[in-house]
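Deliverable D2.4 — example input (structure tokens):
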């Protein structure tokens, strides 16, 4: 398997100075070129797993491999797109996108040519000389996707990349991300709190439980041959994931608030107005 997570665990020291297992053991395998999402309650270790794959966090137990090689440090083959675009405000959009290539010692002209290719892909080529403060939140996030793609990574690790954006912008970027994924063949691992987003974008959704973070379910999302997911299937899959997560959230609330707490299932619902779906 291409990207393999085998018995991976992570421990952090809590407020009482005790080492606590926050994640694992996790076993999962991601195929090359696939689009996989992780959803789970806050604090279940989604970002921690993503950062371990990025080589930004150490693995305490188990093994992470890509193409059979152990992941021990960050590499340009695995690039992270964060929730905030994190662009350099003093650089133009083109300079922001070419920055990583300059570090890789790619000649200026070749770097700019490649950067323009990816700026075109995210529909921002005419903003090459603008500065980040002149762009909307959605445009900035497009730049950060171009900045990641220009490194031509094998894996794009996306940590709630659209959660700070309004729903309309988010919908447009969903479509663009899927187009980019199809065009480039990059493998995408996408972390989100938005269940519908995970269902709409991915081929597979891992549903995480918490304390410690473990995989509760692995859900394959079947699509029509044109890549579209029928509405009914979207809602059914979303409902299925919510049901799994409700048990998890109830577990956390019981731990935090004691037996007196009665879990109100109405708190989680499918929105009849077709908004961007259920958040957890
Ligand atoms: N550097 C750290 N030191 C101590 N504890 C940490 C550290 N990083 C994360 N944690 C803890 O590990 C757990 C998992 O955190 P993580 O951010 O991976 O969860 P998450 O599922 O991504 O959460 P969210 O959805 O809220 O972003 C949390 O309980 C968090 O408080």
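Example output (designed residues):
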């Amino acid at each position: 398997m291409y990207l393999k997570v085998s018995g991976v665990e992570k421990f952090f020291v809590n407020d009482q100075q005790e080492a606590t297992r926050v994640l694992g053991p996790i076993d999962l395998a991601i195929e090359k070129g696939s689009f996989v999402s992780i959803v789970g309650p806050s604090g279940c270790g989604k970002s921690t797993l993503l950062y371990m794959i990025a080589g930004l966090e150490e693995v305490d137990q188990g093994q992470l491999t890509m193409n059979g090689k152990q992941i021990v440090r960050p590499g340009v083959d695995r690039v992270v797109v964060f929730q905030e675009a994190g662009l350099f405000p003093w650089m133009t959009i083109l300079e922001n996108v070419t920055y990583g290539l300059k570090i890789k010692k790619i000649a200026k002209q070749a770097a700019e040519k490649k950067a323009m290719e990816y700026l075109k892909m995210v529909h921002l080529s005419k903003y090459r000389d603008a500065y980040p403060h002149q762009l909307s939140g959605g445009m900035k996030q497009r730049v950060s996707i171009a900045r990641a793609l220009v490194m031509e990574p094998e894996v794009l690790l996306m940590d709630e990349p659209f959660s700070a954006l309004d729903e309309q912008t988010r919908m447009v970027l969903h479509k663009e991300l899927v187009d980019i994924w199809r065009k480039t063949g990059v493998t995408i691992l996408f972390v989100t709190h938005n269940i519908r987003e995970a269902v709409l974008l991915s081929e597979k959704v891992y549903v995480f439980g918490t304390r410690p973070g473990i995989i509760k379910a692995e859900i394959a999302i079947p699509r029509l041959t044109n890549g579209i997911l029928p509405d009914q299937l979207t809602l059914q899959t979303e409902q299925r994931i919510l049901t799994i997560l409700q048990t998890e959230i109830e577990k956390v609330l019981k731990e935090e608030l004691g037996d007196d707490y009665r879990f109100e299932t109405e708190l989680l619902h499918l929105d009849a107005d077709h908004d961007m779906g259920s958040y957890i």
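The beta strands are 3-13, 19-30, 35-39, 61-66, 69-70, 78-81, 155-159, 187-191, 204-209, 214-220.
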